[in-house]
Amino acid sequence: MLNYIHYALNEEITAIGGHYVITKESKIPLSGREVLVTVGYGVMDTTCCGTGGCGYATVYGFIEEWKSETNEDGLEVSKVTPIRDEQIRKSLKISILNSETVQQVNFL
Asked: pTM to 2 decimals?
């Protein structure tokens, strides 16, 4: 099980070479369980080799505990189990690509 920290939506987070923004956090129902997915975009605008960007979704996994604790920074934390089954991953990827404006879907 992994911890997922719930960061504020629509706030820039500085990263190497640019920044990213998480714009949406979703719980997708799947086989009687829920899957945690975030959607956002990244912008590469402080790199030495050019600029660019993309929309992305990150699938964190099955939700085991929803916002069950708070970390030392006061942010809520959920517990998730990464999805390893390739058929489930493929199905989720297709669903997300058809419903969100993203170019890539990443799995933990």
From this structure: 0.91
